[in-house]
Amino acid sequence: MKRALLALCTAGLMLTCLTTPALGVYLGNVRPNSIPLSITGEARPAVPDAAGTVSLQNLESRLREKNSAVRSLQATLNSQTIVNRERAYEDMLDAINGATEYAWFLGSRPDVQSQVTASQLKATANSLSDQLEALKPENYDKSIELLRRQMASAMWQIIAGAEGLYLNILTYESNLADLNNALTTLEATLSEMTLRHELGQVSALTLQQIQSTYQSTKSQAATLELGIKNMKATLENMLGEKISGDITLAPLPPVSKNQLALAAQEYEASLNTAKTKSAAIYAADKALEDAKEDWDDVSGNSSFSEKYKVAEQTYQSAVFTHESTVKNFELSFRNLYLAIPGAQQTLTAARSSLTYQQQTYEAAQLRHKLGQISDTALSTAKNDLQSAQSAASTAERNLLAAYRSFERAVTYGLVE
Fold first, then answer.
1. Which of these CATH numbers, 3.40.50.720, 1.20.1600.10, 1.25.40.10, 3.40.50.300, describes 256-416?
2. Distance of CA 323 to CAs 104, 284, 285, 318, 347, Å?
3. Residue 112 near residue 119 (C-beta atoms within 8 A)
4. What pLDDT does 26 receive?
5. What is the mean pLDDT of residues 300-322?
6. Is 80 helix (H, G, I), strand (E, B) or coil?
């Protein structure tokens, strides 16, 4: 009965006159189970980014301001051009009554043409009745809610994608720093091996192997540097900035103890909250409800009739789809929930390793000062320390990414 509603709502985006809540109201805390405006509650930066830079804290607000896709979705959510439901309901009711009355008039006439026209009018009135049912508040509001949730979900996915790109760039920059550190060590080693080769202490093959490793590492660094520049250009494009590939990313904020405590709250409560925000589950709920109503509408028909069988099979399909949607959501949410303690353990181990490497390097500095180890050995110890620092930074990024993914699941119902 309500199948025409989604098409009606979509087409309604081009109609006028209905005043809808502004995004801040709709996505705020006014409506139960709604999606809030942003993680922080406001999408405005406390401290603007300096020219040529971007911070994770301001990424969302800058996307809202400059990204064309986000602005388009937000404008649609803010739009006052959905449908004037009350006027549409009255117009549709008048059309149905008019068609029904005229069909009755023509049906009383003896000529064949009048009878055919009356039959066509009755079919039209029945079709309009389905759309009229869709415009009733209890039906219309649910479909508009679904449409809004889907658009809001798409908007948050763009923002989450930009955030993922931000984290990836920082990871690649860290990898580049590791390669550059390795190059520094290789340069020292190559200089030492060249001298030892001249003194006849190492073979030409050994020197050639070190030279090959150095050139290969140098090539990897150049390739990675180009990849970073391309990724930065993509981020600049998303932010509506001039594309240069040179934007500077600010360091990440740490995950606070309060945030970790929030993520560690009772699992079922967090899961249930996430479910109420999910556009996918809302759509599956609505599809199941609509299929059940359609089946009920033909319950008076014979169970062997085509309409009854089709409605029954549609309902059974909606049941299976609903079960699958919920189970997949629960599995994805569980993975996000468990990723946080795993990331915390990895960070703890990385910090412990960093402490050890710091002590090892300090000891190497002392031994080098006393002439007990070579420049190459000291450089190697320094490289090990820098690698440990990089591993700790990576673990910190992974923890932040895990937390933000979980937070988006609870706040927006996004688990992909």
1. 1.20.1600.10
2. 46, 9, 10, 9, 37
3. no
4. 25
5. 83
6. coil
pLDDT in tens, 71-88: 887 777 666 445 566 676
- Amino acid present at 249: L
- The pTM assigned to this predicted structure is 0.72
Tokens of 326: 């919920």
User: Could you give the dihedral angle defined by the CA atoms of residues 289, 292, 293 and 296, in that order, rounded to the nearest 10 degrees?
Assistant: -160
User: Amino acid identity, residue 153?
Assistant: S
Q: Tell me the C-alpha distance between 75 and 69, whole Å.
A: 10
- Which residues are 54's β-sheet partners? 249
pLDDT in tens, 8-66: 343 333 322 322 222 222 222 223 334 443 433 344 556 899 999 999 999 999 998 89
Comparing CA positions, the residue from 65, 60, 70, 74 lying closest to residue 24 is: 74
Query: What mean pLDDT comes out for the span 172-196?
Result: 89
Q: Which of 401, 416, 410 is nearest to 263 (CA)?
A: 410
C-alpha distances in angstroms, 198 versus 168, 195, 201, 204, 207?
44, 5, 8, 9, 10
Contact between residue 295 and residue 311 where contact means Cβ atoms under 8 Å apart: yes
Amino acid at 123: A
At which residue do the structure tokens 């031994």 appear?
367
**CA torsion, points 324, 330, 333, 337, in degrees to nearest 10?**
-150
CB 279 within 8 A of CB 416: no
**Residue 249: φ, ψ to 5°:** -95, 130
C-alpha 154/C-alpha 279 separation (Å) is: 10
Phi, psi for 206 (deg, rounded to 5): -60, -45
d(CA 333, CA 94): 49
pLDDT band at 189 (very low <50, low <70, confident <90, very high): confident
Helices (H) and strands (E) in the chain, counts: 13, 2
